[in-house]
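Reproducibility note. Readers wishing to regenerate the assembly model reported in the main text can use the exact inputs given here. Chain order matters: entities are listed in the order in which they were concatenated for prediction.
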Amino acid sequence: MDRTKILNRKTKTSISYKTDEKTVLRGYDLSELAEKGYSFYDAMFILFQNRIPTENEEKMLKYEMGVFLEHSMSPSAAAAIGVITGRPNLPTAIAASIMTFGGVHGPGAAHGYMLNKYLRRALDEGKTIDEIGKILVDEYLDAGQPVMGMGQPQHVDSDPRAEPLHAKQEELEVEGIYLELQRSIEKHFHARREAEGKKRVGVNVVGSGNTALCDIGFAPNAAWCIGSVSRGYSCATHALYSMKKGRAWAASKSEPMVQMLDLSMIKYVGPDDRPVPTQEEREKYAKRQKDEGEYKKWVI
Amino acid sequence: MGDIKKNIGNLNDPRMPYNYAEREYGTVPKDTKRAPFQWVSEIAYKNVHRIVTRGYDTTELMEEGYGLVDVLFINFQSRIPSANEEKMLNYIMVLALEDGLSMPASISRLVGRSKTFLTQAAGASILAFGHAYGAFSAFGNRLEEYSEIGDKENKTISEIAEIMVKEHLNDEGFGISGLMIKDPAAKRMFVRAKELGVSGKYVKIIEKTVEEAKKVSPEPVDLDMLGAIGATMMDLGFTPEAIWSIIAITRSFAAGAHYIEEVEREEFTKFGETLTPKEVYDGPEDRPVPTLKDRAKYAKSAQTHSLKEWSDKLSKREQNYGTGYRIHEEIEDPSKKT
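Running the prediction on these inputs yields the following structure tokens for the assembly.
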């Protein structure tokens, strides 16, 4: 093992190179791409897939990135606003917003890996797409797990972007095996909830948007990158609004509305107030506390 | 709550601003005199069935054929761009997407080596954008400032350019440098902006500033990508902070691809794995650690009590890298000036 490699290694990359004369992405001069009229969406295909897309694939990505960009108050926007209240440099707030995308907020990679896993199983087990869709739904629900791509806590009647994304994919004729599987998942998911007497839970924007990204050739992590970084743009505007038109610290008493970090916004549900033991009392106190074990219910 | 102790440490010192022993416990009651907290935004809202940015339903925007590039104008400027403005921003974003193994890509790759989520690496890449690398806010605010001075003092573009060159030629974020002498991409951007009819006073000022810089610079200089993108986007109506954000985020897509490639091609790095060879170390020679008993003999206190003593000590401290004494800067509130 070369333990000095971060300092010394020569990194190889097949993504791009840059010389005094030009910057080249997957073999294409970036300036030439722009001069010849290729769009930013085309460049995404070159970056992540090493190819120029069809016109309809480009249109699909344009729709997906545009519709995903703004989502008002989600964890990402809240993070950007929260960070900027301390007035650090703007990029920190944007970075924080993108970093909120994890296993629950816009879990694009996880959804893509789930689809790939079950498609692989369909192949290995000789199942149809529809059969594997039902298996997926049953396995997730039997295990008490949410089915990725279904449900959104704010858009309880289905995300307003979700079904239009499916429809656009069909209109542009860029639907493939992923949309077939996703539709099957939705069908069996709705049927099972209906049979169990539960309220209908619609497809969310990951279930629809990520499906489209999979069908137009993006790997799960590439799709995740596209979704979460697109959101970064709107989070930048939310941070800028707070920075330029809001009050730093978000706790001012002179604002007409109670602020996000006003002291009265704090609700405490932890251990009761208690005196601090002196150093002389410390050993006895600490032993009793550990023996009683009440503290364990607070350990996180 | 047990007995309240009256004397803890220094807390009964009479210089304390209030009586520490009698401070209240418990949280602050809800403030019912003012309106309750809400997320106030002039950017966007959503309800159960709609997501609306600056008044436009986002799903309807897409159904009408608008895309992400249009929404950047809507979000940052609250307006629908002309087709040529959209084309120009598209052009800029293609060029801004990738820059080889420069800092955002390198940061993303390093973070990825720790076995993180992709979003951690892509987010971290944005932190590379400061006031030297990707200095779009510094560039834009300067350009705005000198443009305003020109307007107020009735100066010609040539005069503004001359002053800017005189005062800032060697700044990292000047937008004119020796970086793109052989690469025509930055200059082509201005040509395209003119073809599309979207160039304006900022492109003019920077073009003139390039001319002035070429006259006085001892080294060959020309328009670089910072200057080209900055001036063109300002003519498209974006604020310096908006440009800073948009370009940093645009580069972050490529940083995501670099994360992916790093994970695909390299192994993860374990905690404590990376060695730093002694050849790259130029700090104090290896020396024995004194026993705690001998500590008083070795240790020297940091306190100084006269200005002369303070100044002498500061000079000595400045000789050591990594202590922070060699950096002299003022941290300003960036909401006033980024």
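We highlight two features of this model. Chain B has a mean pLDDT of 93. Strands of chain B lie at 44-46, 51-53, 56-57, 176-177, 222-223.
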